[in-house]
Specification:
heterodimer, A: about 150 residues, alpha/beta, Glucose Oxidase, domain 1, eight-stranded mixed sheet, two-stranded parallel sheet, 10 strands, about 25% strand, B: about 425 residues, Aconitase, domain 3, 3 domains, four-stranded parallel sheet
Chain lengths: ~150, ~425
């Protein structure tokens, strides 16, 4: 078990299994098919992301460096939250990017009771340590506890 | 973040709950990035990334309805990304049924919303809104609230405007409020480069490959590119602008580049030179072998790697007038060499509606039509991203389309060769 401390962008509690991308997550490419065709697991459809492709993202602790790609990214996250297909939490090793930040803020301001805690700046050590399937607990102060 | 008394009052509800939420969204967004204040949006028009009435985006339309009902609309006009549908683009009866009745069943409704919110004109749908014919071309130094990764990177880099890589909806919020948080690419410091990219290729690198390589390497950082002016020159000619449009789109979609500087060519690089490079900037050298390595890394998503291409898309982002003429010449020449009259692969060239209108007034339009090519204003990405089109062997010269779909990437010369000669994919 190991604890990491980041910055709570959207403070909250979450407990979930980790799903890990070591490269930037392209939000549109990852979520588009899932949102379009009603996949409740939000299976990642991004062919260019070998870490995530074909894996469920809904309800998981999505661990990533940043999001990349299309500027629809924020609204795609907003829609995922609105349709309850969002990851349980987003955990960024680096400083959050503008698209993911937009998605997080839009969900917080415009959706009642949207639950997707977001923590950034967890450091590269976090991504080096965390593996798919590890148990993750997120605290409102930005603490992230990674179990085996 | 410092807010003016007027902004504080809006936040407190002076202009209603919805306007308070609009401003709160922008303030929270800015605070994440340490914005010190809000700055006025100074461009005449805005550009929105969301142009498609996709059933899956219902939450977006509900939010927009909320804005319209509350009278929280922009004082700016705006363009939007390309439409997802065009009856002239080849599609099976089943595909047409699914597109019109299921996937994009909200298209008419959404376009009505866009008109109510301030769409510049009924056909203002293009990712390349900055083309002269489209009339949404910001000036140097203007502050924007745009989204659309390829348009933002072009506006910042080639035009010298200032815009962050805003997300869809956030683009609209800034336009409605008339201000955006001051951080990142809006600031002098945020526009300095943390990478020096040295282009050492033996010839002019393919724009879409070079952009891809740089995007994958620098991600969201700002690269200062040295050695490209050797091929592009030091003036922003039509050809250089078209190259940079495609280069930037690839860098923005394969990574998250929002601004690049090309030494001796782009406006800030010309004005400030290497002062733009931060201390400790990292270096990336791109030669022929590096471009080969990057290209070999692209996954092939076709079921049969030697399948005969069923469709070809050229123009993501939309082609400029000069590019349409260039492609017409290239296709004519390829057909002559192949001894054919019509293209062997159904080929769609995409451009902005206003460019298409102007192109159709010229003799070039009939020449292009004679090759069998289809000229459309569709968004190829929106066409491709569904279970009916995804299994199709589609080829493209767009690295953006490759990234977001199952389309297979080829260089422009290879595309011209395949569509004029036919046969299986190479």
């Amino acid at each position: 078990m190991k604890q990491f401390k980041g910055r709570a962008i959207a403070p909250g509690r979450a407990e979930a299994e980790a799903v890990v991308s070591r490269c930037g997550v392209n939000t549109l490419a990852s979520f588009q098919k899932a949102l379009q065709f009603g996949d409740k697991n939000a299976t990642c459809g991004d062919q260019n992301n070998p870490d995530l492709y074909g894996k469920a993202m809904a309800g998981k602790a999505l661990c990533l460096p940043q999001t990349i790609g299309s500027t629809t990214g924020g609204l795609v996250l907003y829609c995922a939250c609105s349709m309850n297909r969002q990851p349980a939490c987003l955990l960024f090793s680096e400083e959050i990017d503008s698209l993911a930040a937009a998605g997080s803020v839009l969900a917080a301001v415009w959706l009642d009771g949207a639950q997707m805690p977001v923590v950034d700046s967890l450091g590269s050590e976090f991504l080096d340590y965390v593996r798919d399937g590890m148990k993750i607990a997120v605290e409102p102060d930005g603490s992230v506890i990674v179990g085996e | 973040m410092y807010l003016t008394p007027e902004q504080e009052a809006v936040l407190a509800g002076k202009e209603g709950e919805t306007m308070a939420k609009v401003l709160k969204t922008l303030v929270m967004y800015g605070e994440i990035f340490g914005a010190d204040k809000m700055v006025p949006v100074t461009s005449k028009d805005n550009h929105l990334v969301t142009s498609f009435g996709l059933k899956a985006l219902q939450p977006v339309y509900e939010l927009m309805e909320q804005l319209i009902e509350a009278g929280a609309v922009s004082k700016q006009g705006f363009s939007a990304d390309p439409r997802p549908l065009d009856k002239n683009v080849p599609a099976s009866a089943l595909q047409k049924l699914v597109f019109n009745k299921f996937m994009y069943s909200r298209q008419d409704y959404y376009e009505k919303q866009l008109r109510e919110l301030g769409l510049m004109e009924p056909d203002a749908f293009s990712c390349a809104c900055y083309l002269d014919e489209m009339g949404n071309k910001p000036a140097y130094g203007e502050v924007l609230s745009w989204a659309e990764s390829s348009a933002v990177v072009y506006a910042n880099s080639v035009l010298g405007a200032r815009c962050n890589r805003n997300s869809g909806i956030m683009d609209l919020m800034g336009s409605i409020a008339g201000c955006v948080p001051n951080f990142g690419l809006l600031t002098d410091e945020g526009r300095r480069a943390s990478w020096v990219v040295r282009v050492e290729t033996s010839g002019m690198p393919e724009a879409q490959l070079l952009g891809s390589a740089i995007g994958m390497k620098v991600m969201e950082d700002v690269p200062y590119v040295v050695g490209l002016d050797k091929f592009l020159g030091s003036e922003l000619t039509d050809a250089a602008c078209a190259y940079l449009k495609d280069f930037g789109a690839a860098a923005a979609s394969n990574g998250a580049v929002g601004l690049y500087h090309i030494e001796n060519l782009t406006p800030e690089a010309k004005r400030y030179g290497r002062e733009l490079i931060r201390d400790g900037a990292r270096e990336y050298v791109i030669d022929d072998s590096e471009l080969r390595r990057v290209r070999l890394g692209y996954p092939l998503m076709w079921k049969k790697s030697d399948a005969k291409p069923k469709l070809c898309f050229i123009g993501c982002p939309h082609l400029s007038m000069a590019q349409l003429r260039e492609w017409t010449l290239r296709l004519e020449s390829g057909l002559r060499a192949a001894g054919r009259r019509k293209l062997a692969v159904p080929t769609v060239l995409t451009t902005a509606p206003a460019v298409k209108r102007e192109f159709e007034k010229t003799e070039w339009s009939a020449r292009l039509a004679r090759t069998g090519a289809i000229l459309s204003c569709i968004c190829p990405l929106m066409y491709m991203n569904n279970p009916l089109c995804a299994p199709m062997p589609v080829i493209t010269s767009s690295n953006k389309l490759r990234t977001y779909s199952t389309a297979r990437y080829y260089t422009e010369a290879e595309i011209a060769d395949i569509v004029t000669k036919g046969g299986g994919a190479r």
